[in-house]
Amino acid sequence: MTDAANVLERHYPYPDHITAVGLGTAEAFRAAYPAVAYRQISADCRLPFPDGSFDIATSNAVLEHVGSPENQRLMVREMLRVARVVFLTVPHRYFPIEHHTAIPFLHYHDATFRWACGRLGKATWADERNLILMSRARLAAVTLSQIPAGRRVGALVMLALAPACLINAVGGQNCFLTASLLLGGLLALDRRPILAGILFGLLTCKPHLGLVLPFALLALGAWRTIGAAALTTLALVAASVGAFGIEPWQHYLGATSAFQYSLLERFSGFYPYMMASVFAGARTAGLGMSAAWILQAAVSLHVLGLTVWAVRRTRDPRLRAGVLAAAAMLLTPYAFNYDLTAVAAILTWRLFRADGEEAPGRVTILAWVLPAMIMPLQMHGFGGGSLVLIALFAVLIREVAAEMPQTAPPMSPAMALG
Predict the structure, then answer these.
(1) Mind listing the domains of the chain with CATH numbers?
(2) Among 211, 187, 209, 175, which Cα is nearest to 308's?
């Protein structure tokens, strides 16, 4: 134990929420940090915790010492099993001075490292059972090995063949772009908040698809993302005014908005057949304008409340993205079949989830084929497309609820390895 070690235990303000693990009995550690729970574990075995026991699992400079690539994969797999988020670091092989032996440069190649260790009396470090020198590529290979490589190509093909994507390709719509902006921003939110804000700002080119985002970002306290999105939006407005003048904005806010509202009011012609919104389903079922708006508002308020709850609870960025993508389609009356491209990506994740053990549910399959079914169903007077989206949203909310601890004792927020 040194001043450079056990940083989490020394500085985290809630040490009683930490569980540390190690191979020994750790008398000195337990004496130094009596508030931290300690569990002795066995080498190269499963961790003695149920699935999802921790919010975060951390490991600092341990992975390179577990003895073999297979043991490394086991360690990563076990950390992913017991925690929702994993933070894992190793010394970089190509740092000029090797971390364990203080040998400069010669560790860049295995043969020269073994030679130097032998000459300097440090031969134990040249044994893979004691040290595996780690580069970024090797760390990525160990981590990505938990997602079967053969399934990635199939997922890409499935996404390309998704009905929503095919409709976009045939109809020349822009929802490949908007789906990329929405999902890219959601996945970047935790690690690159400024980038997420820029992507959300660019999404204002189709603002009805981002109605849920301000509420979600406020719930998360994502102030940097909010600021970046606002600045990006202002920059887009300024660029458009500089290029085309103020007249297009005046026309859009006046004549174009009135025309769009009149289309919803008349609800006739070809375009209603492509709509998947709650409002469109109500109008197709024969409800009047006022009743359809009331139903749309009632569903939107419930979806919005559950979304704010869900994004604050889940720590899985893909699950959070799924909730928000489904909510985006339910909050707007202008949801069309080609707007469901982002939902198609979420469904691809669900169909090709890493564990591969759970068969896709009926709701997932129905949501997958929904964009192709909306038009024939609407033509025959059945506006139930939004019911499938509501069911998908409900499934995602249920998964968020299942993530939460079911017993009274709080979940430990961190597990420390090494």
Answers:
(1) 7-96+123-146 (3.40.50.150), 151-403 (no CATH)
(2) 211
